[in-house]
Amino acid sequence: MKATTLIFSLVIATLMAGCISSASTASTTASPAVEAQQPYAVPYTIAQGYFVRNDVDSLPSNRIITREQFDSLFGMAAVMGENGMPTSIDFDRQFVIAVDVPVTDRITSIIPESLEFVPAPLNPSSMQAKIVAGSTIEFTYKVQIGAPQSFSTHPVLILVVDRRYNAPVVTHRCISFLSH
Questions:
Q1: CB atoms < 10 A from the CB of 156, how many?
Q2: Is 134 left (phi over 0), alpha (psi -120 to 50) or beta?
Q3: Distance CA 84, CA 118 (A)
Q4: 16 phi and psi angles, rounded to 5 deg
Q5: Sign of the CA dihedral 159, 162, 165, 166?
Q6: What phi and psi, each to the nearest 5 degrees, are found at residue 17?
Q7: What gap in Å lies between CA 111 and CA 141, rounded to an integer?
Q8: Where are the domains of the chain?
């Protein structure tokens, strides 16, 4: 009986210590000096009607902030019919996130999964800044590779994003092979 009471007392004491410890941790993380912010989704538009120029082997960067940089990497491919013109991009108000895969003779799709702004911790002195140094954008996408085709392509996905989210981009890619 004494052994059962001793074990029960130790379990209760351990639980109490855990509660005190987490309460102490919670009070230190709520410090006014640094405020943690949660990542949040970033709206974007998928640009249509562009292709990677033939003299570009791979994209040197996934964040493109000027028209000159964009035009050195991509050409326009207007097609007949409704919505046949390439997506308009205003580099004064927007920037581009682009990801590609090497030239391939397989059917290949690049599919966006998520685009999130990950804010850096804020100090009270930097509360007025829109983008705090250390913030990033995390872009997760999936590459689906399918059956062979009779020609080669340079698959690319271009996202148009509002410039207020302009921060370094971290990409996460998942590759899946489709059976044919």
A1: 19
A2: left
A3: 35
A4: -65, -40
A5: positive
A6: -65, -40
A7: 6
A8: 1-30, 40-177
Q: What is the pLDDT of residues 42-62, one digit of tens each?
A: 999 999 999 999 999 999 889
Tokens of 106: 């397989």
Encoded tokens for 84: 């046949």
The answer on pLDDT for 88 being more than 70 is yes
Question: CA geometry: angle at 34 spanning 29 and 38, to 5°?
Answer: 75
Q: Which two tokens stand for residue 122?
A: 């804020």
- Looking only at the bridges linking them, the beta strands covering 44-46 and 40-41 are unpaired
Confidence of residue 84 (pLDDT cuts 50, 70, 90): confident
Residue 19: which pLDDT band, with cuts at 50, 70 and 90?
A: very low
Q: Using CA atoms, how far apart are residues 100 and 155, in angstroms rounded to an integer?
A: 6
Cβ within 8 Å of residue 148, ≥6 positions away: 105, 106, 107, 180
